[in-house]
Specification:
Helix 2 packs across helix 3. Helix content is 30%, strand content 13%. The longest helix is centred in the C-terminal third of the chain and has 14 residues. The protein contains 4 helices and 3 strands; from the N terminus they run αβααβαβ. By secondary structure, the chain is α+β, with helices and mostly antiparallel strands.
């Protein structure tokens, strides 16, 4: 058995060629990068995508077109102040300014004077729900202020 630390017999090795032209049969020419013996081929494929645009025509059951056909304007109602001899002018003007939106003291006093002269006067035109709300609030004030709703087209 050989000892791992014992000197081994040296053998003469052949010098390995590091550069082109140092081996037998090389054509010389100096240093060159070694090329592999196997050739590799690269194939490049380009695929192009085409976009196609389709147009969609509106159908009769399309919800967007249905909205336009069924739309109607909300009927407007006139809020009419009915005249009464027992009204206190200051109270009526004050309550009308507080309840009816976009009405100031000058407009309220003008409406009150017109109602006193003609029996009734228009306070404004509103959709039914809003006009009904104003009418109910004026009726609940103490003392009551009488109003009436009249459809605008009639």
């Amino acid at each position: 058995m050989a000892n791992a630390f014992a000197p081994a017999a040296f053998s003469i090795r052949q010098k390995a060629a590091l550069f082109a032209g140092e081996r037998e049969g090389d054509s010389g020419g100096g240093a060159a990068i070694a090329k592999p013996a196997v050739k590799q081929a690269q194939k490049t494929e380009t695929k192009s995508k085409t976009k196609s645009r389709t147009t969609k025509e509106a159908k009769t059951h399309d919800p967007i077109s249905r909205r336009d056909e069924d739309f109607e304007e909300a009927p407007m109602f006139k809020l009419m102040l009915v005249s009464d001899d027992s009204y206190d002018p200051v109270h009526v003007v004050e309550r009308m300014c507080a309840i009816v939106e976009d009405m100031d003291e000058d407009q309220a006093s003008t409406v009150f004077q017109q109602a006193s002269q003609n029996g009734q006067a228009m306070c404004g035109k509103y959709p039914f729900e809003r006009a009904e709300l104003f009418k109910e609030q004026l009726m609940r004030s103490d003392p009551m202020i009488f109003t009436d709703l009249v459809e605008e087209n009639k």
